[in-house]
Amino acid sequence: MEQNWAERLAARRASLTRRELDVVDFVTTHPLEASFLRQSDLCSRAGVSKPVVISCFRGLGYEDYQEFLEGIRGFYAGQIDSAQASAVALRDVPDVGALVALALDVEAATVETLRRQLRPEQVEALARLILGAESVYLYAEGSGFEPAHYLEQRLRRCGLRACLVGEDRLHLLDDLAPLGPRDLLLTFFYTQDPLMVADILDYVRQRGARSALITGTPDPELFSRTDHHLFVPRGQWNFKNSLAGPMAFAQILLLAVELLGGEELRQGLERLESTRKSFGSRYKEEAS
Fold first, then answer.
1. CATH number for region 1-80
2. Residue 32 vs residue 79, higher pLDDT
3. Is the CATH code 3.90.230.10 the one for domain 119-277?
């Protein structure tokens, strides 16, 4: 699985020189500024020479300076606001044709990143948790609502008990009141504020239930609060509204549930579709 900025730094920090660490310290102290600097400007701001910057990003396993910047942007994407991201994305786009091409390239790159990072055993483990749960509760923050809502609807079609919670934050605890040890909470987290999600994960653990966290922001504190966590990128840093990654993951997870659910689940889907087709048929016959 491809390592993010923090994982690369943790694995290779000891091998970096003092001057290379000056580059790292500048990036971690000013991540948003560093995300957009030209190489010469980074040298100036960090007080180092160009060869030091080059040896630094190569020491962290990046092929070139652009990949180094993308690694920083990807890790700190949650801190880049939508206005800033849009301004940069549109800066070099002359017309709608170029915009469409750029947007499709971003979506394709996001799905390719998911391909490299998502391990089949992670998907299988989560699908089996869903199948083994008495009820599946789905909670979302930010643009995670769309994949959560999609899964809630589709899991119910599979004959599973699924419930979307938290649409009304004032009644969130009411929604979670039935939560028990045989239940699962599945959370899609795609905002900058982890406080609510942290409280919910702690609450789920107190109730003896299982939890799984899907997020595009690596957060060790949140990861420590959940039974399973998966890194699923929402999109590139400059396309904040992209849902290519989470929606692709939701579809993959649903198909894994159907595959592992076996013949009984598939027969249930067939009965549902057959019943759906017959609904309204008597009314049509009577009307004719």
1. 1.10.10.10
2. 32
3. no
